[in-house]
Design goal:
Largest interface: A-B, 49 and 55 residues
Number of strands of chain B: 0
Oligomer: heterodimer
Radius of gyration of chain A: 18 Å
Distance between the termini of chain B: 60 Å
Distance between the termini of chain A: 69 Å
Shape of chain A: flat
Largest sheet of chain A: none
C-alpha cells in the first residue's frame, strides 16, 4: 500500500515542481523568481524524503540537510542583493571617500 | 500495517499542502501574496512529510534501518528557523524596490512613514 501512496505523492511533488518552474520562467519581477526558487528547493527536500521512504534507504538523508541549508543561504543572499546591490558590505567604506 | 497507514496519511497531508503552496504560487496576483502562500503551506507540508519519515524509519522491520532520528529533527528545527527569516528578508527587499502591489489593496501601513533603512541604502 505504501508503494502506491508514495508513487502518487511523488507525482504530486513533480507537478508542484513544474508549476514553480513556470513561475521562475514567467515571473514578472525578480522577487517572484526568488520565492519560486525557495519553493523549488523545499519541493526537492520533500521529494528526497518520499524517495527514501519508497525505496527504504537511508543514504539520502544527509543530502536533504545540505539542500535545506544552502537554499536558505541563497535566499538571504538574493534578497540582500536585490535590496542593496551588494551582498557582503565592506567595513570602513566611509573613510575611503 | 498500522504504521504504514499512519505514514501514508501524513504523506498525503504533506502532498496536499505542498501542492496548494505551488498552486497559490501560480494563481495569486501579487508578489507579496505569492510569498504568503508558499512560505507557510510549504513549511507545513515539509514538516508533515518529515514526521512520516520519522515514523517509518523508527518502526522499520529491517533492523539495519532502525536508527536514532536526528537528521529529521534537525531539518524540522532548521526549517522553522529559516523559512520566516528568508520570507521576511524577501518581503523587505520587495518593499524597498517598490514592487507593484495588487490594485484592490487599500491598506499600506508603511506608506508615508520615515524608514531610515530605506532612505540610507538607496
Amino acid at each position: 500500500m505504501i508503494e502506491w501512496v508514495t508513487n502518487f505523492v511523488l507525482i504530486m511533488i513533480g507537478v508542484s515542481f513544474a508549476i514553480s518552474l513556470y513561475r521562475v520562467v514567467k515571473g514578472p519581477t525578480s522577487i517572484d523568481r526568488a520565492v519560486a526558487l525557495d519553493n523549488m528547493s523545499s519541493n526537492v527536500v520533500a521529494f528526497i524524503i518520499v524517495f527514501s521512504i519508497r525505496f527504504a534507504t537511508l543514504h539520502f538523508i544527509d543530502a536533504m540537510m545540505v539542500i535545506a541549508i544552502l537554499s536558505f543561504i541563497g535566499t538571504v543572499a538574493f534578497a540582500k542583493y536585490i535590496a542593496t546591490g551588494m551582498i557582503i558590505e565592506k567595513k570602513g567604506k566611509e573613510h575611503d571617500h | 500495517m498500522i504504521i504504514e497507514i499512519i505514514c501514508a496519511m501524513f504523506l498525503l497531508i504533506g502532498a496536499v499542502f505542498i501542492f496548494s503552496a505551488s498552486f497559490g504560487l501560480y494563481r495569486l496576483p501579487d508578489a507579496y501574496c505569492r510569498m504568503h502562500a508558499t512560505t507557510k503551506a510549504s513549511t507545513l507540508g515539509l514538516i508533515s512529510m518529515l514526521i512520516a519519515s520519522i515514523i517509518f524509519f523508527s518502526f522499520s522491520p529491517d533492523i539495519r534501518q532502525q536508527r536514532i532520528v536526528i537528521q529529521e529533527v534537525l531539518i524540522i528545527f532548521f526549517t522553522f528557523l529559516s523559512a520566516p527569516v528568508g520570507a521576511h528578508m524577501l518581503a523587505r527587499s520587495a518593499y524597498m524596490i517598490r514592487i507593484r502591489m495588487y490594485e484592490r489593496l487599500h491598506v499600506d501601513e508603511l506608506e508615508g512613514k520615515h524608514l531610515p533603512h530605506l532612505s540610507e541604502q538607496r
